[in-house]
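Subject: for your reference before the review

Hello V.,

The reviewers asked for a structural picture of the protein, and I figured it would be easier to keep everything in one thread rather than splitting it across files. Below is the amino acid sequence we used in the manuscript, unchanged from the supplementary table.
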Amino acid sequence: MDWGKKNRLSKLFRADGKCFYLPIDHGYFLGPTRNLEKPQETIAPLVPYADALFVTRGVLRACVDPVGSLPIILRVSGGSSVLKDLSNEEITTSLEEVLRLNVSAVGASVFIGSDHEKQTVMNLAKLVNECSTYGIPVMAVTAVGKELEKRDARFLALAARMFAEIGADVVKTYWCEDFEKVVAGCPVPVVIAGGPKVETEKEVFDFVYDGIQRGASGLNLGRNVWQNPNPVPMMRALEAIIHYGATNMEANEMFEELKHAETAAAG
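And here is what came back from the structure prediction:
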């Protein structure tokens, strides 16, 4: 691996080999979703606890200060809104733009099992081909649309292995039962996607802790943080699981303590 690619990848993982990415790219298909209407205000208090931002070029330019920013993973796929078939994606951002923005990595969704499976797989292949020339790491995102509940370890392991075989450097995928089977079959780091918003904070801590124990290299989670009424306590508790060895129970206790302290400080 060339020096430049090693350098970029080193920025995406802490010394412990783990990572916590904060995705704020949801607007590319959802529009101004709740609590992300003004991305710069949403992320400002959360940045100290994240290792990288996953973001589109438009929001990067408009809402992220280029001076002293976190490492950037640039979302480079898109094409359809939530009103249409989300799997009908293409690459939206040129390699010249990627280099101009000086990002640490790029990310693209791949829809295994969809009508546009081949198209999105080839998007990933072309992206790997182009980025390899310039030492840009590629994160492949397992995209399932509204079919998440139907996706088990067998399906997610198939997708993750395909992405690694094509050349992805990191795979973002969903937690599932028997998650160790997904990790075992994927020779590159696997990070857990957040999925849809759940009912309780404890549910989030449970699946994140389980995934880390079963071999995940980290987390890429957005809505379950910035749509929470107490996003900073949520962010800090998740960071404690990923980087400081906290259990799901300890993270939940930490969240409750920070939440109460935040409420008391607000008067």
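For the response letter, the relevant points are probably these. Residues 175 and 211 are 6 Å apart (CA to CA). The mean pLDDT is 95.

Happy to draft the paragraph if you're swamped.

O.
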